[in-house]
Amino acid sequence: MQQITRVNHLGIRVFSLASSRAFYEKLGFKFIVGPVGPEPVAIMEHASGVNINFILNAAAPTETNVLMDEAVKKAGYTHVALEVNDMDAVIAQLKTLAIDITEGPVVFPSGTSVFIRDPDCNVIEFHQPKK
């Protein structure tokens, strides 16, 4: 479909707006509005233009992610990959922020990645393309 111009936003179901907001603020996201709407939703945005809609009706988080950590793999979105321009700086900032790297650095043919988890065990990849 040629009319698609970009990703507009990511929808992430979360348990606690306060916990999610605090975590994503550490990554540089700014709170825009929320909760709003019938489901309800809160919105955060990064200066890069990445927009996240938190759907605020998840059950309490568990220690695992049903799409990533269970032996039987279910269909669904497994992670978001955020492109970065300095992986060493990202790794240093994550350490300073006391955010655990759950995997990586991993070198792929396309570049290098590290993975973290948010308070609800959602996976976030930071990917620096190969030069």
UniProtKB/TrEMBL annotation:
Transmembrane segments: none annotated. This is Metallothiol transferase FosB. The keyword Magnesium does not apply. Residues 6-129 form the VOC domain. Keywords: Transferase. The lineage of its organism: Bacteria, Pseudomonadati, Pseudomonadota, Gammaproteobacteria, Alteromonadales. It is an enzyme of class 2 (transferase). It comes from Colwellia marinimaniae. InterPro entries: Glyas_Bleomycin-R_OHBP_Dase, Glyas_Fos-R_dOase_dom, VOC_core. SUPFAM superfamilies: Glyoxalase/Bleomycin resistance protein/Dihydroxybiphenyl dioxygenase.
